[in-house]
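fwd from M.: "can u put these together and see what the complex looks like"

so here's what she sent:
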Amino acid sequence: DVQLVESGGALVQPGRSLRLSCAASGFTFENYGIHWVRQAPGKGLEWVSGISWNGGSTGYAVSVKGRFTISRDNNKKSLSLQMNSLRGEDTALYYCAKDRYSSSWNTNSQGMDVWGQGTTVTVS
Amino acid sequence: QSVLTQPPSVSGAPGQRVTISCTGSSSNIGADYAVHWYQQLPETAPKLLIYANNYRPSGVPDRFSGSKSGTSASLAITGLQAEDEADYYCQSYDSSLSCWVFGGGTKLTVL
């Protein structure tokens, strides 16, 4: 089965750091762009970050640029999101999601067709 | 305030047709960037419903269709069913922000 499994969510104090991970299985990980999307409690979806197949291109939402860093290890079929200087507004369920077709994350993306179950980050 | 504007809620009776609008601007939908639509059932991860404006992934019923014109896009659902009750989100790329953006989401209620 094609699967993404997030981990690393926790309760952290404002200003601290946290690293999220996403483990992939069931598909050729290195062929696809991967994204992080978050959802605050009771709120809508917010795209957070994306990374191309080889990590050579990355993108960030304005709200996290300069604080979050996305990376990937194709040998380990894993994705990471390093989150620094955390704020209360970063409290959310964080999903990793696979691009449906594109090896990149940007304008060539054809949507996100596989999602993990999410991992919860609480900043308080 | 989302870059893409969706109505907070829509409703319809079983069997009816409903549409959900997604209004953007010249830096996203109007710049001819693709629009994708997602369905999120309660307490579950989102599911890709429509990609690249009007294409359905395998397994999505043809009751769901997408369209785009100018700076707006729409999702249409025909033959409404109780199982369609969910939140729906549009997504597009914004060149001013250099990132993907979602609409605020629309809650569909099946009466």
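replying to her w this: The CA atoms of residues 63 and 78 of chain B lie 5 Å apart.
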